[in-house]
Structures are given as structure tokens and as C-alpha cells.
Specification:
Blueprint (H helix, E strand, L loop, with lengths): L7 E4 L9 H9 L3 H9 L3 E3 L15 E4 L2 H13 L7 E4 L3 E6 L16 H8 L24 E7 L2 H13 L3 E9 L6 E4 L4 E2 L5 E2 L23 E9 L2 E8 L6 H8 L29 E9 L5 E5 L4 H8 L5
Parallel strand pairs: 6-13
Antiparallel strand pairs: 1-3, 2-3, 4-5, 5-6, 7-12, 7-13, 8-11, 9-10, 11-12, 13-14
């Protein structure tokens, strides 16, 4: 791949008009389209001073500029210097590390938020991860946790481990368990929710069967959306609350939260998927975060060994449980 001189640029001509950005860069710089796409996604290549999509359609007199990666990295480091958070490392090998993500921390940047992410912390502490994975904003990251959730997350330290983990998540051979506190009294000791999940018109994820009442006998139904499977066991019963051990077999956005909201048992502390009829008892302080914690994660290493890691409930969640009355 050609070396890109820092702060160089070119202006598109009439013959470039209508071309895809990745195709044009590959043509002009003598690289593959895959290499060109990496430049675009890493924001090393900018159009008119802004990041662009790989399929951006070139216009006449567009200014394509190349910026050294170091400038973006310095921006990330500066953002992390402003953060007082640290991320506990549960385990670390030459292949991977397992972290205990705090609640309130995004896993990777979004269009609305770039600072205080797990990805930024990883690049600060492990700058060599910048080239691991499929996107520079997600160094070594193969799965996610909601910003509001906490718990275990595995990060690949090598390209080989990244693809090994990715394959396991795709084939659903990893195991992920969560401790989740929901409102209401869940009737069954064990259950499985299997109705699909899709994005609603307001941007939130939705999952609702085409029936009037949701019960464990009627959650299997044909409905547009993506397959989603959530399995649960009751761990504890409290007045107006149920503590669950949850295993997800798929990894849909907000899956646990959406499934239990649709099941009429929203997760405690969820400000997005909530029902007005559920609230704290009189005099009880509301929980300041989501009661959803990834407590157990297991996967295989490159040599085929199976490993399992656990993380106890954060103290704030333990304290909240202590305020509830057992049944």
C-alpha cells in the first residue's frame, strides 16, 4: 500500500464525477478497494474536511484530504484524559483480554458520542490494537454491551483471535449470562422468549407478538423482524420485582431490555423501555443505572481450550437489592 504523505489533498475533476469514493482512491493511489475503504472508515481520508461513507458519490471540485492517523489518535487520547473512569481487566493473555465494562461507558463511538468510550480506553492502554479488527473505532471488539449496562466483554489482541472470536459469536458457540432485575412477579421459574426484534418508527427497538396477551405459551409467533432468543431462570423473588439469570442466544440491539419490556416485565432502571405502571415503592430511591450486568462469559481460545470468566454484581446493584423485600 502506498504511503500517504501527511496533510496532502487533491481536487476532483470532471472525469471523477459520479465515481464512488473508495473506487476513486484505489484508482488514484494504486491500492485495493479494501485498503481504500479502511482509509475512509478510519477518517484518514476526508472529503471537504469531513468524514465520508465509502460509497460517497464524487462531485466536481470535491477536496479529498489525507490526514495522518496520529492526529485522530491524539484526539482520542485527549478525550480519555478528561475521563476519570478506568476499566477493570479481569484477565489478559497474548491472545485476548477480558474487561469489566462500567455502566455509562459506550463500547465504541457513535455519531452522537465520540468521547469516553471503551474503544478509546483500549487505544490509550493498548495502542497496538489499532490494527486489530475490521474498523479502527472498534479495536479488537467483536461484541457489545449497552452503554447503560455493565459487565464482561472480551477483546481480541491479535487478528487471528479476532476472527476466531467473531466466528464463535456468529455460530453462537459463546455463552453469555446476565443478572437482570425486572419489575413485577415473573410467574415461571424458567422461560424462553423467542419473538423477533425490529427497529420501530421512533428509532427504538420493538418486539411484540401479534396477540393480545403475552404469555410463555404464546411468545412463539410469526412476525416481521430478526430472530432473537432470550432464555431466563428466576434467581430471586421480591415484592414487585424478580431477579433473573438470563442467557441470550442471539445478539440483537437492546435484546434483553426489549424482550422483557414486551413481556411486561421491564428492566429496573431502564429509562428507554419502561412502563408507567411500574415504579419504586413509596420512599424508595430509584436506581440511577440499568440493572443489567454481564456476569459470565465463556468462549474457546485458539488452541481449542474452553475458558469461562465471571464478574460479581457491582456494589450499587447489591445495595439496591438489599432495599427490596423478599417474598
Amino acid at each position: 500500500m502506498n504511503t500517504i504523505p501527511p496533510h496532502t489533498s487533491f481536487t476532483t475533476a470532471s472525469e471523477d464525477k459520479g465515481s464512488r469514493l473508495d473506487f476513486l482512491l484505489a484508482q488514484k493511489l494504486g491500492m485495493t478497494r479494501s485498503q481504500a475503504q479502511k482509509l475512509i472508515r478510519s477518517e484518514t481520508a476526508l472529503v471537504n474536511g469531513r468524514s465520508a461513507k465509502v460509497g460517497y458519490e464524487i462531485r466536481l471540485n470535491d477536496v479529498v484530504e489525507f490526514v495522518e492517523k496520529v492526529h485522530k489518535r491524539e484526539k482520542v487520547y485527549k478525550a480519555m484524559e478528561q475521563s476519570v473512569r478506568d476499566v477493570p481487566v479481569i484477565a489478559e493473555t497474548d491472545e485476548y483480554l477480558v474487561v469489566n465494562k462500567p455502566a455509562g461507558v459506550l463500547v465504541h463511538p457513535t455519531e452522537a458520542h465520540e468521547e469516553h468510550t471503551l474503544a478509546a480506553w483500549l487505544l490509550t492502554r493498548y495502542p497496538e490494537l489499532e490494527d486489530v479488527g475490521e474498523h479502527p473505532d472498534r479495536p479488537g471488539i467483536v461484541h457489545r454491551l449497552d452503554k447503560e449496562a455493565s459487565g464482561l466483554l472480551v477483546v481480541a489482541k491479535t487478528t487471528a483471535m479476532f476472527h476466531h472470536l467473531k466466528q464463535q459469536f456468529q455460530q453462537r458457540t459463546t455463552e453469555k449470562f446476565y443478572d437482570v432485575l425486572v419489575y413485577g412477579e415473573v410467574e415461571r421459574e424458567y422461560g424462553m422468549i423467542t419473538f423477533p426484534i425490529d427497529r420501530g418508527p421512533d428509532g427504538r427497538m420493538v418486539s411484540r407478538p401479534n396477540i393480545d396477551e403475552v404469555t410463555l405459551e404464546t411468545v412463539r409467533t410469526i412476525q416481521p423482524g430478526r430472530e432473537a432468543i432470550t432464555e431466563f431462570w428466576v434467581e430471586g423473588r421480591f415484592v414487585n420485582h424478580t431477579l433473573l439469570r438470563v442467557k441470550i442466544h442471539t445478539g440483537r440491539t437492546h435484546q434483553i431490555r426489549v424482550h422483557f419490556f414486551a413481556y411486561n416485565h421491564p428492566v429496573v432502571g431502564d429509562t428507554l423501555y419502561k412502563q408507567r405502571r411500574f415504579r419504586e415503592a413509596r420512599g424508595q430511591q430509584p436506581l440511577s443505572r440499568l440493572f443489567l450486568h454481564a456476569t459470565e462469559l465463556s468462549f474457546s481460545t485458539l488452541d481449542g481450550s474452553r475458558v469461562c470468566y465471571t464478574a460479581p454484581l457491582p456494589e450499587i446493584l447489591v445495595e439496591y437489592l438489599s432495599t427490596l423485600h423478599s417474598r
